[in-house]
Amino acid sequence: MSESERTPLLSATSRNKLSAEASMASLESTPLLSSTSATPRYDGERDEIDDNDEATSVRSHPLDAHSIHSVASIKSKSSRWPSYIAMMCLATFAGVILVVAYMVPAAVEEYAKQAAVLEPTNLSLQSITADGVRARIQANIRLDGQRVQNEHVRRVGRATTWLLRELGTEETKVNVTLPEYGNILLGTAAVPALTINIMDGHNTAVDFVADLIPGDAEGIRTIANEWLEGRLDVLRLKGKADIQLKTGFISLGTHTVSESLTFEANKLPQLPEYNITKINFEESPIPDLNRTAMAADVSVTAFNMYPISVDVPELGFEVLLPGCNLDDHILVAATRTSTVAVRPQQEVVVNAHGLIKELPKPLTKVCPDSDSSPLDMFFKKYLDGETATVFVRGQKQTDSDTPDWLGEILSSITVPVPFPGRSFDNLIRSFSLSDVHFSLPNPLAEPGDPDADPKVTGNVEVLAALPSEMNLSLNVTGVAARADVFYRSNKLGELELEHWQKASSKKVAANKDHEAMLKIISRINDAPLNVTDADVLTDVIQTLIFGGKEVILDVKALVDVKVQTVLGQLVLKDVPAEGKIPVKPLSHDLAGSLQPKVENIEIINTDPTSIELKASVNITNPTPYSARIPYINIHLLSNGTLIGEATAKNLDIKKGKNSNLVVTALWKPSLSGDQGVAIGRELISQYISGFNTSITIKGHRNSIPSQPVIGEALSRLNLTVSAPRLRLPGGKDDDEKTHFIRDATFHVLSSRATFTLVSPLQHNTIYIDHVNATALYNHTEPVGRIEYDLPFAAPPGASTTPKLPVTWSLDSVGYDKLKQALGGTLKLDATATVSVRLGAWTETFWYVGKGIGASIRI
Question: Which residues cross the membrane (predicted)?
Fold first, then answer.
């Protein structure tokens, strides 16, 4: 109610009549003014008064006629001065009456509007009746003249209210309507009789019970929904009542009071801030349906800042979630609140119990032009920690004492309720990957194709904390994820699990060290790992190979989870998860642990400067990881100079020993010019002589054509490995199996020598075009020299050379030893320069052989 409605003095009509009564009371105390016919009327018109009409005065009251006769008697016996004085007094009072008639009502009305003060102290709803609400209203009412700015209005108002002192009302019915909505009746209130002290500064404490009856439910619904949807800018209420006034025992008649109040939407009371203090989900049996549903218990607290007290009975509500369109609301659950005690300036606690029997199909159906359902979109906001929105609508209860009118109003109002999300930053407590298998990219795949990424296969074990409010049986049946992988806060790449991977889960009970956990196990197969930063990959590989330390990779992922619940299978999309993947070091000495061995060499192609060959390689994988290599090409270097390259295709590297890995290689030192040719010649000479040689393996940008980023990372790494020693057929021990010259026969008289050669090639013939060799005894003493210019063949396996001419060193100690061993054997060494031809390729090498068993013949 406005200030105008809080005092009976607000109506202009009532002010006029009150002033008339006050004037009448004043005149009755003076015999000269006892006639009521001389009192002005305040009904909107003023009667003409003839002060000289004595007959009329006499007829109106006997006492007035007697007084006039007395005056006439005195007039005849004495001077006329008293008559003049009486006439002057009468004229003065007539002037006062005129002022009161036209000026006092407006001043009193203005005074009442500005001076009225209403202070509600308590509003309590005593009971909810079949028709409405019975409310107890307590308030303080007073007139404070200091609030009136105009001094003349303040004086007139104070004087008038001092004269009247109190105003009383009879029982009054107030109707409140909405003018802008076709004067829909918003509600009525029955206010009992009241008596109010209207003297300036005097306080009246009122305490009464009123019956409040709601009006048109449709009107209430319209206003409520417009306000909740933010479409209500201004609200104007119009109150109208017929008030019966009295002062003391004098009735002042019935007056119609009508006032309008205008509220701006931003000044209307808002929904109070609330806290959800408890959410608990658990399984609940449904005896009638012989199955189980999901029950939810929710506790909400809010602070009541208003002087309102009420006991709210049990109420039923429906909980709805947004659909694909903003206007679609999907019914999910029915809830019922317990009795709520609302007290002024105190916390209000609302406990609600809901039951979800099943998930509606529209809730889980994918929206048009989208890959998400309404349930997906709701969970995404909730799991991202954002505020989602649920809708709450009243529900009529057939088994409740709630009046029909209240259920009808509540069921027509839908309130959007912000549902705060929850942060799941610490949901994943551990994340491990075991039995890992890596697959390098397909070289034929186009960039951006999933086959162009390396792939990871392994067993994933996740330990996730179960939220305390989830007391349900949960079984994870599938997972998919999109994860960013970091090393030392730098992004390494992206791990994609677009397809569902089978999973299983097991609940781990809570103990003193941790809360309840959910252990999830899944086998991921060929998950693409898109490496985005070559520098980071280089750091990882260097740490694994050379650092000998465990590498911890950080994972930030959005995980899709299939969960089997009592409501059926749910799909939770984009669940934020963070974890760590420990990667064990490859080996403390990876290069030494590989132990490569080359077998079954086959020449594929030759030209004057290069040889392309194929070989079987045996290596030992010392790492805990396996790998599949569809294609990889690496550079071969010696002393930092490029001398060739090697290519591997469709290799499956398992843990431990790996045999018969087919590798093709291109020997072409000319790639590095004359320096490369010289270094390549020196390397082969040392290799065939049995020296310990090494080759540096280094990647390059096109090592993996579809993943140049990985190639660039490999190009920054130099892995130097010992050149694999050849294992030639025959031989008594491992050392002898590496010798190209297995034994020799020297004929002293004919000065000829023959040698047994063992070729490392099983499919190709080597031709020796020129030999310039020296046989030595005890590494230094020459025995003889061989120089031969005619080509001869060294076919696969063991073969015997032609009889090569020998020029003896007759004056040397070595020759003497040779003669002493005649008919026996002698251990000799050899140094040689050999020109070799293999297909179109030719090269000249030096060779050093030691411990060659030579048979000495005549």
Answer: 84-104
Angle (CA) 65-69-74 rounded to 5° is 150
Q: Which 3-state string (H, E, C) describes 735-759?
A: CHHHCCEEEEEEECCCCEEEEEEEE
The angle formed by the CA atoms of residues 731, 732 and 736, to the nearest 5 degrees, is: 55
Spatial contact of 103 and 159, defined as CB atoms under 8 Å apart: no
Q: Which CATH architecture has domain 736-857?
A: Sandwich (2.60)
CA distances, 158 to each of 26, 119, 199 (Å): 17, 21, 7
Residue type, 611: I
Rounded distance between C-alpha atoms, residue 54 and residue 163, angstroms: 31
**CB atoms closer than 10 angstroms to residue 834:** 18
As given in the structure block, the two tokens for residue 79 are 């001077």
CATH annotation of 116-267 = 2.60.40
pLDDT tens, position by position, 727-782: 677 766 666 666 788 889 999 989 999 999 988 888 889 999 999 999 999 988 99
Q: Are 240 and 174 in contact, with CB atoms under 8 Å apart? A: yes
Q: Which helix (H) or strand (E) is 24 found in, with range?
A: helix 12-28
For the chain, the domains span: 9-111, 116-267, 274-363+391-419, 428-582, 590-726, 736-857
Residue holding tokens 């390059």?
700
* Token pair recorded at residue 78: 């004495």
Q: Largest Cα–Cα distance of the chain, in whole Å?
A: 204
Helix axis angle, 151-164 relative to 104-115, nearest 10°? Answer: 90
Query: Is there a contact between 263 and 239 (Cβ–Cβ < 8 Å)?
Result: no
Cβ distance 482 to 496 under 8 Å?
Answer: yes
Residue 23: burial class (beta carbons within 10 Å; 0-12, 13-18, 19+): buried
Give the single-character DSSP code of 761: B
Fold observed for domain 274-363+391-419: Immunoglobulin-like (2.60.40)
Distance CA 830, CA 233 (A): 108
Rounded to 5 degrees, what angle do the CA atoms 843, 795, 775 make?
65
Q: Where are the beta strands (DSSP E) in 778-840?
A: 781-788, 792-794, 797-800, 804-808, 825-838
| Residue position matching structure tokens 């009247």 | 164
Say if 116-267 and 590-726 have the same CATH topology.
Answer: yes
What's the pLDDT tens digit per position in 530-582?
888 988 888 888 887 777 778 888 888 888 888 888 877 888 877 777 777 88
Asked which of 65-74, 463-472, 811-820 is least confident by mean pLDDT, the reply is 65-74
Question: Could you report the per-residue pLDDT of 801-812, keeping only the tens digit for each?
Answer: 999 999 999 889
Quote the CA–CA distance of 135 and 126 in Å, as a whole number.
Answer: 5
| Tokens standing for residue 246 | 């009295």
- Name the residue type at position 276: I
Beta bridge partners of 352: 298, 337
What is the rounded distance in angstroms from the CA atom of residue 305 to the CA atom of residue 270?
A: 11
DSSP E strands, 584-655 = 597-607, 610-621, 626-638, 641-653
Least trusted range by pLDDT, from 400-404, 443-447, 655-659: 400-404
Domain 590-726 has CATH 2.60.40: yes
3-state secondary structure (DSSP) of residue 714:
helix
